[in-house]
Amino acid sequence: MAEAHQAVAFQFTVSPEGIDLQLSHEALKQVYLSGLRSWKKKLNKLRNSFVTGVYPASPSSWLFMVTAILVTQYSRLDPSMGMIGKIKEHLPVSDYLSDQSQNVLSALAFSTGLWLALILTMRSILKLLLCYHGWMYEEHGKMSNTTKIWLALVKIFAGRKPMLYSYQASLPRLPVPAIKDTMRRYLESIRPLMTDVEFQRMTQLARDFERTLGPRLQWYLKLKSWWASNYVSDWWEEYVYLRSRGPLMVNSNYYAMDFLYVTPTPVQAARAGNLVHAMLLYRRKLTREEIKPNMIPSSCIPLCAAQWERLFNTTRLPGVGLDRIQHLRDSKHIAVYHAGRFFRVWLYHNGRLLQPRELQAQFQAILDDLTPPVPGEEKLPALTAAERDPWARARQAYFQSGKNQQSLSVVEKAAFFVTLDTSEQGLQGTNPSQALDAYAKSLLHGRCCDRWFDKSFTLIVYRNGKAGMNAEHSWADAPVIGHLWEYTLATDSFQLGYDADGNCKGDIEPGIPQPQRLQWEIPSECQQVILKSFSVAQALANDIDFHTFPFKEFGKGLIKKCRCSPDSFIQLALQLAHFRDKKKFCLTYEASMTRLFREGRTETVRSCTIESCNFVRAMVDLSQNVSPGILARGSTCFAWQLKNTRTFTSRP
Q1: What residues contact residue 576 under an 8 Å CB cut-off, 6+ apart?
Q2: How many Å separate Cα 152 from the centre of its chain?
Q3: 599 in Cβ contact with 304 (< 8 Å)
Q4: What is the percent of the chain with per-residue pLDDT over 70, rounded to a whole number?
Q5: pLDDT tens, 350-377?
Q6: What is the pLDDT of residues 76-86, one digit of tens each?
Q7: pLDDT at 445
């Protein structure tokens, strides 16, 4: 109850002697610091919005423009060609404004208008330049003169020192492909999978669609593309993710793995302290928009950064038939799960972030807490691992009041979720390959009841110091999590570090509140729902045949020396392995980002093509001769592929 008493700013009692008022100075101090931090964030956001709004110009360029116009005025030159005089004529008459003051105000108004016009012009030109995508179809290492000129123009109009969202207004919108192109590409993608009779029938159906219903649907798409930032991303998020009723675990969520051969510290609480602090540093950079936008190639072509917005403080809330995404501007705590219990850990003290050593003490207090979980608490996260509708109904029935509502709100409004796992994982033991399989499966689904799969991501720290992440997919795609995880690992190892005993560096300030144990009152009916969800999730996890292994024969460097794309090489290897296993081809999905366009998510690459099928048939036909050019450029890669692709498996 100590936390509840600290939350009360003042108390008063009415007695025959009068009113007894008691103020809590510590609580008032926390209120003041919280308000101060909130206003600082609002001011920073306002400043960043202004800087981003005038990009690719800068606020200092406005001062330069005003100064230049005023200098020309005093030199009796008129670069406005009479516009300043026209503005002066329309200024309100006032006894407080001299003729010189009116000249200054007129010049100020003209220079500001000219500055805004130049910004719009530069932004429009940059948007037109970014519509050119011919560079991606050119051979690697060779660049046409057209692309060289285009790159030079992009560098001129792209501005300097961009913030995270600086290029958002300059990104082109995703174009709607012509219906003829859509039908042609569709028929090309299904041709390898059909007989001549089946393909002829499908061709006729496609032509009928193109003549009848297709034009009307095409008009709807064009209409939406005119007023929406992206005509497909909102539908993609809703119909691919939020309307899916199957379990998020395994089917949608994905994982990120720790260093394979290096463990910075074997102390679980210390590793968690450094990783959480590094993530909070990343969140602060994200809030201040100090993260540099992703650029390709040659660091001059921007990618959309909209997906970064919901990285932290985000939860997917279940609903019957349709989920929704809850995103908060800020969160001052994280939710921690250990040995079947839930805790809240505050991230700030006296208006500052907790340091790694202080976070380590928080996590160590949780590890030392031996209180058992209450009935139903241990397997409660299994609700997020199974089907969505039962979880939505249970949430509505049992988590809308009392302790359950308060505790669930703490979890769902946390910056992110942390699991202090009770197992040890990593490349260890007498059978490293089997240990790596267990490590990957643990990150993918764990024990089916120790990750909160609804959170934007769950940080997992194991007992031996290994770590990883499990991320929900609806709010963004994997590159965002990858960028966060790379920053976190680099900051953990090269910036924060550990002392000789494996503990976090630094000292602990006294008076930091201890972690707060979340309270639950889960009725027996809800416990039955939890157990049912747990059995469904367990059956799904047990059905996963997962094998991962370190591959040391060669890497992307050798493949590139063979003048072949590493991605294309792997896709062909998967096609060859599947054909050898099933003796047939299947429709294949490969995700490809569309972040060259505003608010782009992903698009589908159909890697099973007529050309790839011909390649596979040639590889399995021993009577086929390999051309000398291929042998000269890529004998090692293709020889390995020919002999060893049977070790790969591909799911249709």
Answers
A1: 615, 616, 619, 620, 641, 645
A2: 31
A3: yes
A4: 89
A5: 889 999 999 999 999 999 999 999 999 9
A6: 777 778 788 78
A7: 96
Of 575, 601, 547, the residue nearest 432 (C-alpha): 547
pLDDT band at 297; cut points 50, 70, 90:
low
Measured in Å, how far apart are the chain's first and last C-alpha atoms?
55
Name, in order, each residue with C-beta under 8 angstroms of 106's C-beta and a sequence gap of 6 or more: 84, 85, 87, 88, 91
Look up 473 and say whether it is catalytic: yes
- Round the average pLDDT of the chain to a whole number and report it: 87
| Cα of 188 vs its chain's centroid, Å | 32
For the record, the structure tokens of 529 come out as 């729902």
Predicted confidence at residue 645, as pLDDT, reads: 44
Beta strands in 339-479 (DSSP E): 341-346, 348-349, 352-353, 417-420, 457-461, 467-471
pLDDT score recorded for residue 525:
95
What does the DSSP 8-state code read for residue 310? Answer: G
Percent helix, strand, coil in the chain (nearest 5)?
A: 50, 10, 40
Number of helices (H) and strands (E), helices first, in the chain? 21, 17
Check residue 630 and give its pLDDT. 45
Distance CA 11, CA 652 (A): 65
Residue 37's nearest CA partner among 225, 287, 282, 217 is 287
Catalytic residue among 25, 473, 547, 578: 473
| 430: its two tokens | 């007498």
Contact 412, 453 (CB under 8 A): no
- Distance in angstroms (rounded) separating the CA atoms of residues 135 and 446: 43
Phi/psi of residue 587, each to 5°?
A: -65, 125
What is the percentage of the chain residues whose pLDDT exceeds 90?
62
Domain range annotation of the chain: 2-51, 59-136+143-161, 179-229, 253-376+400-519, 556-647
| Sign of the torsion angle spanned by Cα atoms 536, 538, 539, 541 | positive
Q: How far is Cα 376 from Cα 607, in angstroms, rounded to an integer?
A: 46
- Phi and psi angles of residue 408, each rounded to the nearest 5 degrees, phi first: -65, -35
To the question of domain 253-376+400-519 being in CATH 3.30.559.70, the answer is: yes
Tell me: pLDDT of 439 over 90: yes
State the average pLDDT over residues 104-114.
Answer: 87
| Phi, psi (deg, nearest 5) at residue 564 | -130, 145
What is the structure's pLDDT at 159?
A: 84
Q: How much is the pTM?
A: 0.86
* Domain at 556-647, CATH homologous superfamily: Chloramphenicol acetyltransferase-like domain (3.30.559.10)
> Same CATH fold, 556-647 and 253-376+400-519?
yes
